[in-house]
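Design a sequence for this backbone.
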């Protein structure tokens, strides 16, 4: 679970503002497919919000304050 916690913390920082999957993958230095897997899990765990049209991911306010 240490890897998940590290990825969660980094992604919350990166997603302080809405970002696309491709931009997140680039910022984290991971392949797009890996970024998508993490993003799906973080959305399911209620850490990120997935916006549509266009698809963007943003950290929930409570996680930005933690």
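Sequence:
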């Amino acid at each position: 679970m240490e890897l998940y916690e590290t990825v969660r913390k980094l992604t919350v920082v990166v997603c302080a503002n809405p970002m696309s999957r491709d931009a997140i993958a680039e910022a984290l230095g991971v392949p797009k497919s890996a970024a998508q897997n993490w993003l799906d899990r973080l959305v399911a765990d209620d850490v990120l919000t997935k916006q549509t049209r266009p698809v963007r991911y943003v950290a929930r306010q409570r996680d930005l304050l933690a």
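The chain has four helices and two strands.
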